[in-house]
Amino acid sequence: MLVRIVGAAGQSPWEAFPTLQAAIRFKKDRQLDAGWTISDERPVAFRDPLHDPLLEIGILIQDGLRPIWRATQYDRLLNRETAGMPKADCEGLARETALVVLDLLDYAGHAGWQARYGQFRHDGRETGHAWLRHESGVILDLAGEQFGMQPIMVVEPGSPHRIRYDDACAAVFDVLALRRADWLDRCGSDLVRRIAEIRPEMPAAARDELEPAGP
């Protein structure tokens, strides 16, 4: 068995996918909502104990955040903060996303993460961006699709993608406190419970990988 996308009524109208990442990309490209779940039916021996659980967590969080992203983009458009609706739902919302994902992981008992802010290198330029970094050096980025990356990026220290992330400082955005609290409330406690049920095998902490958050 492989990976399938299943509807609320149990239907699975598409061919199975070879990887979770392939199913995630398909679901995003087809704009399938949380009513369509990704079912990983591969034997345990064929699953990556780090990447696949983090991808599963990312799927749950993105299903919760995507309607919030879209509503926020409409608000930004109405407030004339943007000239039009972006191609990526998360465009311009990486900071809020990183902070909310950090809170969700923390409440679910996944320790060792920190929200980071810095420059993301893509297409020959650098753009301000935010993501999560574990004390082991593993990066979890749920807002990279705005740069043409996979919807959910799990990047280990030795990955060729690691050079894209120049995280100069810990992400501290007091100005976003109200939006952060609102997003968390809209995600709901059930999302935290479901995240807590997934336990990735995180590597040991790397020396000097994380610094204390700045003022």
Helix content: 25-40%
- What is the H/E order? EHEHHEEEEEHH
Main-sheet strand order equals 6-5-4-3-7
Terminal Cα span: 50 Å
Portion in strands:
15-25%
Number of domains: 2
Number of strands: 7
Q: Mean pLDDT, nearest integer?
A: 91
Major sheet attributes: 5 strands, antiparallel
Structural class of the secondary structure composition?
Answer: alpha+beta
Number of helices: 5
Gyration radius, rounded: 17 Å
Q: What coarse outline follows from CA principal-axis ratios? A: globular
Pick out the low-confidence regions: none
List its salient traits.
single chain; 215 residues; alpha+beta; 5-stranded antiparallel beta sheet; two-stranded antiparallel ribbon; 5 helices; globular
How would you describe the overall organization of this protein?
With 215 residues, the chain is α+β, with helices and mostly antiparallel strands. It folds into two domains: 1-47, no CATH class; 48-215, no CATH class. It is built from five helices and seven strands, in the order βαβααβββββαα. The strands form two sheets. The chain has a five-stranded antiparallel beta sheet with strand order 6-5-4-3-7. Strands 1-2 form a two-stranded antiparallel ribbon. The longest helix is centred in the first third of the chain and has 28 residues, at 51-78. The radius of gyration is 17 Å and the shape is globular. 35% of the residues are buried. The mean pLDDT is 91.
